[in-house]
# Entry
Amino acid sequence: MNDIQDQILPLDVVLIERTRYGDLLFIETKSTESLIRCYDLYTNVALKEEFPRYGFRRGDISTIVDHHQKRSAEEDGYSFDVFNATGQTITVVVVEEPKIEPLKENEVLHVRQLE
# Structure
C-alpha cells in the first residue's frame, strides 16, 4: 500500500478490503475530507447493473484497464476489458465507479452465452 501513498502524497489511503483479486482502497483528501474508492489496475470486478447495449448482465466480470478521475459533477470512472470464456477481448467499455463492485471470496463464477 505504500506505493500508492507515494503516488498521491496529499491523500490518506485506507485499505478497505484485500482479496486475491486486488485491494479495495478508500482515499481521503486532507483538504475536503471526501472519500474516493479506488481499484487497482488489472483488478477483476463485477458489474452491478445490466448493460443491454453490450449484452452484459449484472454480475458479469471484467478487468479494469484504466482509471478516469472525475470532473466536478461527474463520478470517477474506469475503462474495463470484457473477455469471453477463452480470454479473448469482447470490448472495452467506460463505466462510472458506482456501477462496479469488487469480487468476493464467497462468490462463484459461471458460464453463459452472450446474447
